Amino acid sequence: MKKVKKFLLGRATIVALAILIQLLWILSFLYGFQVRYSFVNSLLGLLAIFVVLVIVNKNSNPSYKIAWAVLILSIPIVGLLIYYIFGRSDLTKWTRKRMEAVNQEIEREVQANPEWERELRELDPSAYCQSTYIKEWANYPVYKNTATQYYPSGEEMFPAILEALESAEHFIFMEYFIVEEGYMFGKILDILKRKAAKGLDVRFVYDDFGCVTTLPAGYYRQMEAWGIRCVRFNPLYPVMSVIMNNRDHRKILVVDGKVGFTGGINLADEYINRIERFGYWKDTGLRLEGEGVWSFTVMFLEMWDYVYKTRETDLSKFRPETYQTEPFLSDGFVQPYTDSPLDHETVGENIYLNIINRAERYVYIFTPYLITDNEMVTALQNAAKSGIDVRIVMPGIPDKKVVYWMSQSYYEPLIACGVRIFQFKPGFLHAKCFVCDDKIATVGSINMDYRSLYLHFECGVWMYQSKAVWQVKEDMEQTLLQCEEINMEFCQKRPAAIRTFLGVVRLFAPLL
What we know:
The protein is an alpha/beta fold.
């Protein structure tokens, strides 16, 4: 009963109801005009055609265009309204301009090392091409002098996070999508409060939409009262806004500029299996130590300066070498990257596509969702048709049933071309990892769905011949032992009506 009451009176419910009331009011207002004045129908029809032509001529994903075109032309009064509020995937012009100004100013501090690039090109021209794409289109270079450590679960990564936080002597930067009061965040918060009290520069960014059900509305003020500088990305208000379409889905932790963490792991107890939700929660993370952490520091400061409306004047105090007295260990090549809805470049998806298209022997993939576009499906199919061992590991227990069923609707066309699909029997798999040919891997926050690939701020690390590459491969092999392989019979045993329904719903996947 308490949970029901909490849900009904929760911020998420109140905001959702407020937006729904606004939508219904506007729809009833427009419908009234439509009934009273016959010319309104013709006007809406012409407007629908015009908007669809604008959408079709945009430089965006074809699946996204088709979904909106079908909705707008089928039900103009509803489709036009929903598109105006939620369909414009770009940030507002003013927001985009301000964020771009911040990014350009800070990213000048990130410089490529020609010697490392030359070495990578001589070692592996194909890997060099992938790295060059990230440098040119995500604006983050490749590094050496950086050690990597991969964690196959949240509970294995958590002690390393606590140890790194305890070792902090100068500053701590944290940026997360979901933060929930509980054991995990409580342990972290204790350290942050102690470090802030000692005078360390402790900063925290959380996505307000991601935390709408897990943190009180004014939690950032409480953090500030403890001495932790804290801001919310996209504060959630009960007002319809296109900016709500974009979320900060990144997971970044930087300590003293020389140790960094990322991956799929948020700060909530299910991520370390302290509590059970959807069976065993399988997630992964990555620790960097060395010069490559600088890119994560820059990513954080870009977001911080945008949200906090400030400018960092002295970035030298945040560099990895500032507080490191001994040389960093070298562990292959690492290249942290970020993906943003600002630049009209689908960096996360293209990194995935580059790995798939350049594979020579195998590509193994962890992803919680498989709701993607035709380009990705075709790349996976063509790789498998060419004899590449393509394996995708999905959850066995869903966190969102509709999304789970939609993901399964992609199984049949992939399996028919030779892609092997597995479901993790113990529970929910939230990891986002690729490993290829024993030499390339990426670990990060980017799901294989439209929101991650097109609408969210995301991050990850591309690696070549690093220790973590082998660790990802080993984890993939061990996880496959706990999986059920999906065959064509599984796909075809569903009633034809359900399969048809899922096919229709899949048409609107880009809108979810």
